[in-house]
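Usage example:
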Amino acid sequence: MSSYDRQRLVSMNDSIIEATDFRKTYGDLVAVDSISLEVKRREIFGLLGPNGAGKTSTLETLEGLRPPDGGSLRVMGINPTCQPRKLRRLVGVQLQTSGLPDSIRVNEAMELFCAYHNVAPNYEVLKRLGLEEKMSTQYYMLSAGQKRRLALALAIAHNPSVLFLDEPTAGLDVPSRIELHKLMGELKEADTTIMLATHDMAEAEKLADRVAILLRGRIAATGTPRELTATGSGLTKVSVRTSGSSLSDPDIAFPAVTQHGVKDEYIIYYSTDPGPTVSAIIAHIKEQKDTLVDLRVERPSLEERFLELTGTRNAE
Amino acid sequence: MRAFINHFSFEFRTGIRNKSLLLLNYLFPLAFYVMMGLLMAELNPTFLDTMIPAMIVFAALSSMVLGLPNPLVSSREAGIFRSYKINGIPAVSILTIPALTTVVHTIVVAAIISATATRFFDAASPVNWAGFALVVLLTVFTVAGIGVLVGVISSDSHSTVLWSQLIFLPSMMLGGLMIPSSMLPEVLRKVGMLLPSTYAMHAFQGLAWEVDTGFDPLWSVIILLASGILSFGLAIYLFSWDRHNTTRRAHPLLAFVSWLPYIVGALLS
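Running the assembly step on the lines above writes:
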Protein backbone atom coordinates (compact mmCIF):
# COMPACT_ATOMS: atom_id res chain seq x y z
CA MET A 1 0.00 0.00 0.00
CA SER A 2 1.47 3.35 -1.00
CA SER A 3 1.79 6.24 1.43
CA TYR A 4 -0.85 7.95 -0.71
CA ASP A 5 -3.32 5.13 -0.10
CA ARG A 6 -2.45 4.97 3.58
CA GLN A 7 -2.98 8.68 3.96
CA ARG A 8 -6.28 8.31 2.16
CA LEU A 9 -7.37 5.49 4.45
CA VAL A 10 -6.30 7.26 7.62
CA SER A 11 -8.49 10.19 6.71
CA MET A 12 -11.55 8.23 5.68
CA ASN A 13 -13.47 8.84 8.86
CA ASP A 14 -11.88 12.10 9.90
CA SER A 15 -12.33 15.70 9.03
CA ILE A 16 -10.47 16.31 5.81
CA ILE A 17 -9.89 20.03 6.32
CA GLU A 18 -9.64 21.62 9.74
CA ALA A 19 -8.92 25.22 10.63
CA THR A 20 -8.82 26.23 14.27
CA ASP A 21 -8.52 29.91 15.22
CA PHE A 22 -6.80 30.48 11.90
CA ARG A 23 -5.49 33.99 11.42
CA LYS A 24 -3.77 35.63 8.47
CA THR A 25 -2.44 39.18 8.37
CA TYR A 26 -0.59 41.34 5.85
CA GLY A 27 1.16 44.00 7.86
CA ASP A 28 -1.58 45.85 9.74
CA LEU A 29 -4.35 44.34 7.61
CA VAL A 30 -6.13 41.40 9.21
CA ALA A 31 -7.29 39.32 6.24
CA VAL A 32 -8.59 36.37 8.26
CA ASP A 33 -9.47 36.86 11.91
CA SER A 34 -9.40 33.66 13.98
CA ILE A 35 -11.79 31.51 12.01
CA SER A 36 -12.51 27.86 12.67
CA LEU A 37 -14.07 25.48 10.19
CA GLU A 38 -14.20 21.81 9.40
CA VAL A 39 -14.82 20.04 6.09
CA LYS A 40 -15.81 16.39 6.09
CA ARG A 41 -14.87 13.73 3.60
CA ARG A 42 -16.74 13.92 0.25
CA GLU A 43 -18.18 17.29 1.09
CA ILE A 44 -18.35 20.23 -1.28
CA PHE A 45 -17.73 23.21 0.95
CA GLY A 46 -18.33 26.72 -0.39
CA LEU A 47 -16.51 29.79 0.86
CA LEU A 48 -18.59 32.85 0.05
CA GLY A 49 -17.95 36.48 0.66
CA PRO A 50 -17.44 39.84 -0.99
CA ASN A 51 -14.05 40.88 -2.38
CA GLY A 52 -11.46 41.16 0.37
CA ALA A 53 -13.42 38.97 2.79
CA GLY A 54 -10.50 36.55 3.21
CA LYS A 55 -11.55 33.68 0.93
CA THR A 56 -8.38 33.52 -1.15
CA SER A 57 -6.14 34.02 1.89
CA THR A 58 -7.90 31.10 3.58
CA LEU A 59 -7.57 28.85 0.55
CA GLU A 60 -3.97 29.76 -0.20
CA THR A 61 -2.90 29.16 3.38
CA LEU A 62 -4.65 25.78 3.41
CA GLU A 63 -2.87 25.00 0.13
CA GLY A 64 0.49 25.79 1.74
CA LEU A 65 1.17 28.81 -0.48
CA ARG A 66 1.24 31.21 2.46
CA PRO A 67 2.14 30.67 6.11
CA PRO A 68 -0.60 31.29 8.71
CA ASP A 69 -0.07 33.94 11.38
CA GLY A 70 -1.98 32.07 14.05
CA GLY A 71 -4.07 29.01 14.82
CA SER A 72 -3.70 25.59 13.34
CA LEU A 73 -4.51 24.14 9.92
CA ARG A 74 -4.73 20.52 8.85
CA VAL A 75 -5.52 19.04 5.44
CA MET A 76 -5.90 15.26 5.64
CA GLY A 77 -3.99 15.44 8.91
CA ILE A 78 -1.10 17.28 7.25
CA ASN A 79 0.18 20.67 8.33
CA PRO A 80 0.33 22.58 5.01
CA THR A 81 3.24 24.77 6.14
CA CYS A 82 5.43 22.05 7.60
CA GLN A 83 4.76 19.21 5.15
CA PRO A 84 4.09 20.85 1.78
CA ARG A 85 5.57 18.01 -0.31
CA LYS A 86 3.35 15.42 1.34
CA LEU A 87 0.37 17.70 0.78
CA ARG A 88 1.06 18.14 -2.97
CA ARG A 89 0.36 14.47 -3.71
CA LEU A 90 -3.03 14.62 -2.05
CA VAL A 91 -4.43 17.96 -3.12
CA GLY A 92 -5.32 19.57 -6.41
CA VAL A 93 -5.42 23.34 -6.62
CA GLN A 94 -6.89 25.77 -9.08
CA LEU A 95 -5.69 29.22 -8.12
CA GLN A 96 -7.60 32.42 -8.70
CA THR A 97 -4.56 33.94 -10.39
CA SER A 98 -1.74 31.86 -11.73
CA GLY A 99 -0.06 31.26 -15.01
CA LEU A 100 2.00 28.98 -17.16
CA PRO A 101 4.94 29.79 -19.43
CA ASP A 102 3.67 31.40 -22.64
CA SER A 103 5.43 28.88 -24.84
CA ILE A 104 4.24 25.71 -23.09
CA ARG A 105 1.79 23.61 -25.09
CA VAL A 106 -1.33 22.15 -23.47
CA ASN A 107 -0.04 18.57 -23.72
CA GLU A 108 3.39 19.62 -22.40
CA ALA A 109 1.82 21.24 -19.34
CA MET A 110 -0.11 18.04 -18.65
CA GLU A 111 3.02 15.89 -19.09
CA LEU A 112 5.17 18.17 -16.94
CA PHE A 113 2.79 18.42 -13.99
CA CYS A 114 1.86 14.72 -14.10
CA ALA A 115 5.55 13.83 -14.14
CA TYR A 116 6.05 15.80 -10.91
CA HIS A 117 2.99 14.09 -9.40
CA ASN A 118 4.49 10.78 -10.54
CA VAL A 119 1.39 9.73 -12.50
CA ALA A 120 0.79 9.13 -16.20
CA PRO A 121 -0.40 12.16 -18.21
CA ASN A 122 -4.18 12.40 -17.94
CA TYR A 123 -5.23 13.38 -21.47
CA GLU A 124 -8.77 12.20 -20.74
CA VAL A 125 -9.42 15.16 -18.46
CA LEU A 126 -8.24 17.55 -21.19
CA LYS A 127 -10.70 15.91 -23.56
CA ARG A 128 -13.42 16.15 -20.95
CA LEU A 129 -12.82 19.87 -20.52
CA GLY A 130 -12.92 20.54 -24.24
CA LEU A 131 -9.19 21.02 -24.75
CA GLU A 132 -8.62 18.02 -27.00
CA GLU A 133 -8.17 20.14 -30.10
CA LYS A 134 -5.84 22.52 -28.27
CA MET A 135 -3.27 19.89 -27.28
CA SER A 136 -0.51 21.44 -29.39
CA THR A 137 -1.51 25.05 -28.78
CA GLN A 138 0.88 27.23 -26.85
CA TYR A 139 -0.45 28.73 -23.63
CA TYR A 140 -0.39 32.35 -24.79
CA MET A 141 -2.69 31.46 -27.69
CA LEU A 142 -5.45 30.09 -25.44
CA SER A 143 -8.48 32.21 -24.54
CA ALA A 144 -9.08 33.20 -20.90
CA GLY A 145 -11.72 30.48 -20.55
CA GLN A 146 -9.42 27.85 -22.06
CA LYS A 147 -6.67 28.86 -19.64
CA ARG A 148 -9.10 28.41 -16.72
CA ARG A 149 -10.11 24.99 -18.04
CA LEU A 150 -6.47 23.97 -18.41
CA ALA A 151 -5.74 25.08 -14.85
CA LEU A 152 -8.65 22.96 -13.67
CA ALA A 153 -7.52 19.97 -15.75
CA LEU A 154 -4.05 20.22 -14.22
CA ALA A 155 -5.55 20.45 -10.73
CA ILE A 156 -7.49 17.20 -11.08
CA ALA A 157 -5.13 15.27 -13.38
CA HIS A 158 -3.48 13.34 -10.54
CA ASN A 159 -6.80 12.31 -8.97
CA PRO A 160 -6.41 14.31 -5.75
CA SER A 161 -8.27 13.48 -2.55
CA VAL A 162 -8.87 17.17 -1.84
CA LEU A 163 -9.57 19.82 -4.44
CA PHE A 164 -9.29 23.56 -3.80
CA LEU A 165 -11.02 25.72 -6.38
CA ASP A 166 -10.79 29.50 -6.29
CA GLU A 167 -13.48 31.08 -8.49
CA PRO A 168 -13.50 28.05 -10.80
CA THR A 169 -16.20 29.29 -13.14
CA ALA A 170 -14.93 32.86 -13.55
CA GLY A 171 -14.46 33.50 -17.25
CA LEU A 172 -16.10 30.26 -18.34
CA ASP A 173 -18.83 30.13 -20.96
CA VAL A 174 -22.16 28.45 -20.14
CA PRO A 175 -21.37 24.96 -21.59
CA SER A 176 -18.01 24.88 -19.77
CA ARG A 177 -19.70 25.95 -16.56
CA ILE A 178 -22.28 23.17 -16.86
CA GLU A 179 -19.54 20.65 -17.65
CA LEU A 180 -17.55 21.81 -14.62
CA HIS A 181 -20.56 21.44 -12.32
CA LYS A 182 -21.12 17.93 -13.65
CA LEU A 183 -17.47 17.10 -13.17
CA MET A 184 -17.51 18.34 -9.59
CA GLY A 185 -20.46 16.07 -8.85
CA GLU A 186 -18.56 13.11 -10.30
CA LEU A 187 -15.42 13.96 -8.35
CA LYS A 188 -17.45 14.06 -5.17
CA GLU A 189 -18.92 10.66 -5.98
CA ALA A 190 -15.36 9.42 -6.54
CA ASP A 191 -14.49 10.36 -2.93
CA THR A 192 -12.98 13.79 -3.53
CA THR A 193 -13.49 16.55 -0.98
CA ILE A 194 -13.90 19.95 -2.60
CA MET A 195 -13.48 23.39 -1.14
CA LEU A 196 -14.45 26.21 -3.44
CA ALA A 197 -14.43 29.96 -3.13
CA THR A 198 -16.99 31.62 -5.34
CA HIS A 199 -18.96 34.77 -5.94
CA ASP A 200 -21.61 32.80 -7.74
CA MET A 201 -24.38 32.22 -5.20
CA ALA A 202 -26.43 30.05 -7.53
CA GLU A 203 -23.39 27.85 -8.04
CA ALA A 204 -22.80 27.55 -4.30
CA GLU A 205 -26.48 26.82 -3.65
CA LYS A 206 -26.54 24.17 -6.35
CA LEU A 207 -23.26 22.44 -5.60
CA ALA A 208 -22.22 22.99 -2.00
CA ASP A 209 -23.23 20.69 0.82
CA ARG A 210 -22.26 23.38 3.27
CA VAL A 211 -21.13 26.96 2.95
CA ALA A 212 -19.47 29.58 5.10
CA ILE A 213 -20.01 33.27 4.46
CA LEU A 214 -16.91 35.30 5.24
CA LEU A 215 -17.16 38.96 6.08
CA ARG A 216 -14.12 41.08 6.88
CA GLY A 217 -12.10 38.01 7.76
CA ARG A 218 -14.70 36.42 10.03
CA ILE A 219 -17.30 33.74 9.45
CA ALA A 220 -20.65 35.52 9.45
CA ALA A 221 -22.73 32.38 8.90
CA THR A 222 -22.17 28.72 8.19
CA GLY A 223 -24.36 25.74 7.42
CA THR A 224 -26.12 24.08 4.51
CA PRO A 225 -27.54 26.49 1.92
CA ARG A 226 -31.05 25.52 3.13
CA GLU A 227 -30.12 26.22 6.77
CA LEU A 228 -28.65 29.56 5.88
CA THR A 229 -31.65 30.72 3.90
CA ALA A 230 -33.97 29.54 6.69
CA THR A 231 -32.09 31.56 9.33
CA GLY A 232 -32.48 34.77 7.37
CA SER A 233 -35.51 37.02 7.29
CA GLY A 234 -37.40 34.18 5.56
CA LEU A 235 -39.14 36.65 3.30
CA THR A 236 -40.55 35.36 0.03
CA LYS A 237 -40.32 37.72 -2.92
CA VAL A 238 -43.56 38.21 -4.87
CA SER A 239 -43.15 40.17 -8.12
CA VAL A 240 -46.31 41.32 -9.90
CA ARG A 241 -46.87 43.12 -13.18
CA THR A 242 -50.31 44.30 -14.36
CA SER A 243 -51.50 46.06 -17.52
CA GLY A 244 -53.15 48.83 -15.48
CA SER A 245 -52.25 50.73 -12.35
CA SER A 246 -54.26 48.80 -9.76
CA LEU A 247 -51.18 48.20 -7.58
CA SER A 248 -49.58 51.62 -7.92
CA ASP A 249 -51.09 53.03 -4.72
CA PRO A 250 -48.36 52.51 -2.05
CA ASP A 251 -50.97 52.51 0.73
CA ILE A 252 -52.61 49.24 -0.33
CA ALA A 253 -51.95 46.68 2.38
CA PHE A 254 -51.78 42.96 1.66
CA PRO A 255 -51.59 40.27 4.35
CA ALA A 256 -48.11 39.15 5.55
CA VAL A 257 -46.30 41.78 3.45
CA THR A 258 -43.51 43.49 5.38
CA GLN A 259 -41.82 45.50 2.61
CA HIS A 260 -42.59 46.50 -0.91
CA GLY A 261 -41.01 48.42 -3.76
CA VAL A 262 -40.87 48.90 -7.49
CA LYS A 263 -38.30 47.49 -9.83
CA ASP A 264 -38.54 47.93 -13.61
CA GLU A 265 -42.25 47.40 -14.33
CA TYR A 266 -42.80 45.07 -11.38
CA ILE A 267 -44.22 45.78 -7.94
CA ILE A 268 -42.17 43.73 -5.47
CA TYR A 269 -43.62 42.48 -2.18
CA TYR A 270 -41.65 40.70 0.54
CA SER A 271 -43.98 38.37 2.41
CA THR A 272 -43.65 36.18 5.47
CA ASP A 273 -46.51 33.98 4.19
CA PRO A 274 -46.83 34.04 0.40
CA GLY A 275 -50.14 32.07 0.17
CA PRO A 276 -52.48 34.73 1.61
CA THR A 277 -50.39 37.50 0.01
CA VAL A 278 -50.74 36.11 -3.52
CA SER A 279 -54.48 35.38 -3.06
CA ALA A 280 -55.10 38.93 -1.83
CA ILE A 281 -53.10 40.47 -4.68
CA ILE A 282 -55.03 38.50 -7.34
CA ALA A 283 -58.35 39.37 -5.69
CA HIS A 284 -57.40 43.05 -5.61
CA ILE A 285 -56.39 43.08 -9.31
CA LYS A 286 -59.68 41.38 -10.23
CA GLU A 287 -61.66 43.79 -8.10
CA GLN A 288 -59.98 46.77 -9.80
CA LYS A 289 -60.82 45.25 -13.23
CA ASP A 290 -57.10 45.22 -14.03
CA THR A 291 -55.25 42.43 -15.90
CA LEU A 292 -52.46 40.33 -14.43
CA VAL A 293 -49.50 40.21 -16.89
CA ASP A 294 -46.92 38.34 -14.81
CA LEU A 295 -46.60 37.02 -11.27
CA ARG A 296 -43.45 35.41 -9.81
CA VAL A 297 -42.97 33.90 -6.38
CA GLU A 298 -39.34 33.32 -5.35
CA ARG A 299 -38.39 31.59 -2.13
CA PRO A 300 -35.50 33.13 -0.17
CA SER A 301 -32.26 32.29 -1.97
CA LEU A 302 -28.72 32.07 -0.74
CA GLU A 303 -28.07 35.25 -2.65
CA GLU A 304 -30.80 37.03 -0.70
CA ARG A 305 -29.31 35.75 2.55
CA PHE A 306 -25.84 36.80 1.41
CA LEU A 307 -27.07 40.29 0.56
CA GLU A 308 -28.80 40.48 3.92
CA LEU A 309 -25.64 39.50 5.76
CA THR A 310 -23.41 41.81 3.80
CA GLY A 311 -25.95 44.59 4.19
CA THR A 312 -26.21 45.23 0.47
CA ARG A 313 -29.79 44.14 -0.24
CA ASN A 314 -31.34 47.48 0.52
CA ALA A 315 -28.64 49.23 -1.47
CA GLU A 316 -29.46 47.00 -4.41
CA MET B 1 13.96 11.22 -12.87
CA ARG B 2 11.01 11.26 -15.30
CA ALA B 3 10.04 14.67 -13.94
CA PHE B 4 13.59 15.97 -14.42
CA ILE B 5 13.79 14.68 -18.01
CA ASN B 6 10.36 16.06 -18.82
CA HIS B 7 11.14 19.46 -17.32
CA PHE B 8 14.59 19.59 -18.96
CA SER B 9 13.12 18.67 -22.33
CA PHE B 10 10.46 21.39 -22.06
CA GLU B 11 12.93 24.07 -20.98
CA PHE B 12 15.35 23.09 -23.75
CA ARG B 13 12.62 23.44 -26.38
CA THR B 14 11.64 26.79 -24.84
CA GLY B 15 15.19 28.03 -25.42
CA ILE B 16 14.60 27.55 -29.15
CA ARG B 17 10.85 28.20 -29.34
CA ASN B 18 10.96 31.51 -27.47
CA LYS B 19 12.18 34.17 -29.93
CA SER B 20 13.98 36.29 -27.30
CA LEU B 21 15.83 33.28 -25.95
CA LEU B 22 16.64 32.03 -29.45
CA LEU B 23 18.13 35.43 -30.19
CA LEU B 24 20.24 35.57 -27.02
CA ASN B 25 21.22 31.88 -27.03
CA TYR B 26 22.15 31.53 -30.71
CA LEU B 27 21.57 34.41 -33.11
CA PHE B 28 23.20 37.25 -31.18
CA PRO B 29 26.41 35.40 -30.15
CA LEU B 30 26.86 33.71 -33.54
CA ALA B 31 26.19 36.90 -35.51
CA PHE B 32 28.60 38.80 -33.25
CA TYR B 33 31.18 36.03 -33.72
CA VAL B 34 30.94 36.23 -37.52
CA MET B 35 31.10 40.02 -37.43
CA MET B 36 34.15 40.01 -35.16
CA GLY B 37 35.79 37.39 -37.30
CA LEU B 38 35.33 39.48 -40.42
CA LEU B 39 36.22 42.84 -38.89
CA MET B 40 38.78 42.21 -36.18
CA ALA B 41 40.95 39.93 -38.31
CA GLU B 42 41.59 42.98 -40.51
CA LEU B 43 41.72 45.64 -37.81
CA ASN B 44 43.61 43.79 -35.08
CA PRO B 45 45.22 40.48 -36.14
CA THR B 46 46.34 39.76 -32.53
CA PHE B 47 42.63 39.37 -31.67
CA LEU B 48 42.74 36.03 -33.48
CA ASP B 49 44.93 34.64 -30.64
CA THR B 50 42.04 35.04 -28.19
CA MET B 51 39.10 34.94 -30.57
CA ILE B 52 37.79 31.49 -29.61
CA PRO B 53 37.74 32.02 -25.82
CA ALA B 54 36.52 35.60 -26.19
CA MET B 55 33.58 34.55 -28.34
CA ILE B 56 32.72 31.65 -26.04
CA VAL B 57 32.73 33.94 -23.00
CA PHE B 58 30.63 36.41 -24.98
CA ALA B 59 28.14 33.65 -25.86
CA ALA B 60 27.94 32.64 -22.18
CA LEU B 61 27.32 36.25 -21.11
CA SER B 62 24.69 36.74 -23.80
CA SER B 63 22.67 33.62 -23.06
CA MET B 64 23.08 33.56 -19.30
CA VAL B 65 23.48 37.11 -18.06
CA LEU B 66 21.19 38.71 -20.63
CA GLY B 67 18.89 35.76 -21.41
CA LEU B 68 18.47 33.68 -18.29
CA PRO B 69 17.32 36.19 -15.61
CA ASN B 70 14.35 37.77 -17.40
CA PRO B 71 12.24 34.59 -17.80
CA LEU B 72 12.78 33.90 -14.10
CA VAL B 73 11.55 37.36 -13.12
CA SER B 74 8.61 37.38 -15.54
CA SER B 75 7.60 33.89 -14.42
CA ARG B 76 7.52 35.02 -10.81
CA GLU B 77 5.55 38.15 -11.77
CA ALA B 78 3.04 36.14 -13.84
CA GLY B 79 2.33 33.66 -11.04
CA ILE B 80 3.96 30.76 -12.89
CA PHE B 81 6.03 29.81 -9.85
CA ARG B 82 2.82 29.60 -7.82
CA SER B 83 1.44 27.12 -10.35
CA TYR B 84 4.69 25.19 -10.13
CA LYS B 85 4.64 25.19 -6.34
CA ILE B 86 1.12 23.81 -6.02
CA ASN B 87 2.05 21.06 -8.45
CA GLY B 88 5.09 20.03 -6.48
CA ILE B 89 7.85 21.48 -8.67
CA PRO B 90 10.68 22.32 -6.27
CA ALA B 91 12.58 25.61 -6.24
CA VAL B 92 15.82 23.80 -7.06
CA SER B 93 14.31 22.51 -10.32
CA ILE B 94 12.88 25.92 -11.20
CA LEU B 95 16.35 27.45 -10.93
CA THR B 96 18.70 24.72 -12.08
CA ILE B 97 16.82 23.25 -15.04
CA PRO B 98 16.63 26.49 -17.08
CA ALA B 99 20.31 27.05 -16.17
CA LEU B 100 21.23 23.55 -17.34
CA THR B 101 19.38 23.88 -20.63
CA THR B 102 21.01 27.27 -21.25
CA VAL B 103 24.36 25.64 -20.50
CA VAL B 104 23.59 23.08 -23.23
CA HIS B 105 22.66 25.85 -25.71
CA THR B 106 25.88 27.70 -24.89
CA ILE B 107 27.96 24.55 -25.29
CA VAL B 108 26.41 24.05 -28.74
CA VAL B 109 27.40 27.62 -29.66
CA ALA B 110 30.88 27.06 -28.17
CA ALA B 111 31.24 23.92 -30.27
CA ILE B 112 30.24 25.82 -33.44
CA ILE B 113 32.75 28.58 -32.65
CA SER B 114 35.52 26.11 -31.82
CA ALA B 115 34.89 24.07 -34.95
CA THR B 116 34.76 27.00 -37.37
CA ALA B 117 36.94 29.84 -36.05
CA THR B 118 40.26 28.34 -37.15
CA ARG B 119 38.97 27.25 -40.52
CA PHE B 120 37.14 30.45 -41.48
CA PHE B 121 39.04 33.17 -39.62
CA ASP B 122 42.42 31.59 -38.93
CA ALA B 123 41.89 31.91 -35.16
CA ALA B 124 44.37 30.18 -32.84
CA SER B 125 43.24 26.70 -31.78
CA PRO B 126 43.62 25.38 -28.23
CA VAL B 127 46.69 23.27 -27.67
CA ASN B 128 45.21 21.45 -24.69
CA TRP B 129 41.69 20.32 -25.57
CA ALA B 130 41.03 18.74 -22.17
CA GLY B 131 41.93 22.03 -20.47
CA PHE B 132 39.76 23.82 -23.02
CA ALA B 133 36.74 21.61 -22.28
CA LEU B 134 37.24 22.06 -18.53
CA VAL B 135 37.33 25.85 -18.79
CA VAL B 136 34.29 25.93 -21.11
CA LEU B 137 32.29 23.91 -18.56
CA LEU B 138 33.54 25.99 -15.66
CA THR B 139 32.78 29.27 -17.42
CA VAL B 140 29.24 28.34 -18.38
CA PHE B 141 28.61 26.95 -14.88
CA THR B 142 29.77 30.15 -13.20
CA VAL B 143 28.03 32.54 -15.57
CA ALA B 144 24.83 30.45 -15.31
CA GLY B 145 24.99 30.80 -11.52
CA ILE B 146 25.33 34.58 -11.86
CA GLY B 147 22.42 34.71 -14.33
CA VAL B 148 20.16 32.72 -12.02
CA LEU B 149 21.15 34.89 -9.05
CA VAL B 150 20.34 38.06 -11.01
CA GLY B 151 16.91 36.57 -11.83
CA VAL B 152 16.25 35.73 -8.20
CA ILE B 153 17.22 39.08 -6.66
CA SER B 154 15.70 41.35 -9.32
CA SER B 155 12.42 42.78 -8.10
CA ASP B 156 11.09 43.37 -11.63
CA SER B 157 12.03 43.27 -15.31
CA HIS B 158 13.51 46.78 -15.22
CA SER B 159 15.95 45.98 -12.46
CA THR B 160 16.88 42.74 -14.26
CA VAL B 161 18.07 44.77 -17.24
CA LEU B 162 20.02 47.05 -14.92
CA TRP B 163 21.80 44.23 -13.08
CA SER B 164 22.46 42.30 -16.29
CA GLN B 165 23.97 45.27 -18.06
CA LEU B 166 26.02 46.11 -14.98
CA ILE B 167 27.79 42.78 -15.47
CA PHE B 168 27.62 42.44 -19.25
CA LEU B 169 29.01 45.80 -20.41
CA PRO B 170 32.08 45.99 -18.13
CA SER B 171 32.80 42.34 -18.94
CA MET B 172 32.85 43.22 -22.64
CA MET B 173 35.09 46.24 -22.16
CA LEU B 174 37.38 45.23 -19.31
CA GLY B 175 37.13 41.44 -19.19
CA GLY B 176 39.75 40.73 -21.84
CA LEU B 177 37.26 39.92 -24.59
CA MET B 178 37.94 42.83 -26.91
CA ILE B 179 41.22 44.10 -25.50
CA PRO B 180 43.68 41.84 -23.63
CA SER B 181 43.83 42.69 -19.93
CA SER B 182 47.57 43.29 -20.19
CA MET B 183 46.93 46.21 -22.57
CA LEU B 184 44.56 48.00 -20.17
CA PRO B 185 45.68 50.83 -17.85
CA GLU B 186 46.52 49.55 -14.36
CA VAL B 187 43.36 50.96 -12.74
CA LEU B 188 41.09 49.43 -15.37
CA ARG B 189 43.02 46.16 -15.22
CA LYS B 190 42.31 46.04 -11.47
CA VAL B 191 38.64 46.80 -12.09
CA GLY B 192 38.64 44.04 -14.70
CA MET B 193 39.83 41.61 -12.02
CA LEU B 194 36.40 42.03 -10.38
CA LEU B 195 34.72 40.43 -13.39
CA PRO B 196 34.20 36.71 -14.08
CA SER B 197 35.08 37.11 -17.77
CA THR B 198 38.65 38.14 -16.86
CA TYR B 199 39.19 34.90 -14.92
CA ALA B 200 37.60 32.86 -17.69
CA MET B 201 40.00 34.41 -20.20
CA HIS B 202 43.00 33.79 -17.90
CA ALA B 203 41.90 30.18 -17.40
CA PHE B 204 41.40 29.62 -21.13
CA GLN B 205 44.77 31.09 -22.02
CA GLY B 206 46.65 29.33 -19.25
CA LEU B 207 45.05 25.88 -19.44
CA ALA B 208 43.92 25.56 -23.07
CA TRP B 209 46.43 27.73 -24.97
CA GLU B 210 49.19 27.32 -22.38
CA VAL B 211 50.13 30.99 -22.53
CA ASP B 212 51.46 32.81 -19.47
CA THR B 213 49.08 35.64 -18.60
CA GLY B 214 50.76 36.68 -15.40
CA PHE B 215 47.94 35.25 -13.28
CA ASP B 216 47.96 31.61 -12.18
CA PRO B 217 45.23 29.84 -14.21
CA LEU B 218 44.58 27.49 -11.29
CA TRP B 219 43.60 30.48 -9.17
CA SER B 220 41.28 31.52 -11.98
CA VAL B 221 39.70 28.07 -11.91
CA ILE B 222 39.29 28.15 -8.13
CA ILE B 223 37.83 31.67 -8.18
CA LEU B 224 35.36 30.84 -10.96
CA LEU B 225 34.31 27.61 -9.26
CA ALA B 226 33.86 29.34 -5.89
CA SER B 227 31.79 32.10 -7.47
CA GLY B 228 29.63 29.61 -9.36
CA ILE B 229 28.92 27.55 -6.26
CA LEU B 230 28.19 30.66 -4.19
CA SER B 231 25.90 32.06 -6.90
CA PHE B 232 23.80 28.91 -7.20
CA GLY B 233 23.70 28.45 -3.42
CA LEU B 234 22.62 32.04 -2.82
CA ALA B 235 20.05 31.88 -5.63
CA ILE B 236 18.38 28.87 -4.01
CA TYR B 237 18.62 30.50 -0.58
CA LEU B 238 17.15 33.83 -1.69
CA PHE B 239 14.50 32.34 -4.00
CA SER B 240 10.99 33.76 -3.67
CA TRP B 241 7.91 32.01 -5.11
CA ASP B 242 5.61 34.90 -5.30
CA ARG B 243 5.88 38.63 -5.91
CA HIS B 244 3.02 39.22 -3.46
CA ASN B 245 4.59 37.06 -0.80
CA THR B 246 7.81 38.97 -0.31
CA THR B 247 9.08 36.96 2.64
CA ARG B 248 12.69 36.05 1.87
CA ARG B 249 15.24 34.25 3.96
CA ALA B 250 17.59 37.24 3.73
CA HIS B 251 18.04 40.59 2.04
CA PRO B 252 18.82 40.38 -1.69
CA LEU B 253 22.04 42.32 -1.10
CA LEU B 254 23.42 39.09 0.35
CA ALA B 255 23.91 38.15 -3.31
CA PHE B 256 27.06 40.29 -3.33
CA VAL B 257 28.73 37.51 -1.32
CA SER B 258 29.06 35.68 -4.65
CA TRP B 259 31.49 38.43 -5.71
CA LEU B 260 33.89 37.77 -2.81
CA PRO B 261 36.09 35.36 -4.85
CA TYR B 262 36.67 38.11 -7.44
CA ILE B 263 37.60 40.60 -4.73
CA VAL B 264 40.10 38.05 -3.42
CA GLY B 265 41.37 37.57 -6.98
CA ALA B 266 41.79 41.33 -7.45
CA LEU B 267 43.79 41.48 -4.23
CA LEU B 268 45.97 38.57 -5.34
CA SER B 269 46.71 40.06 -8.77
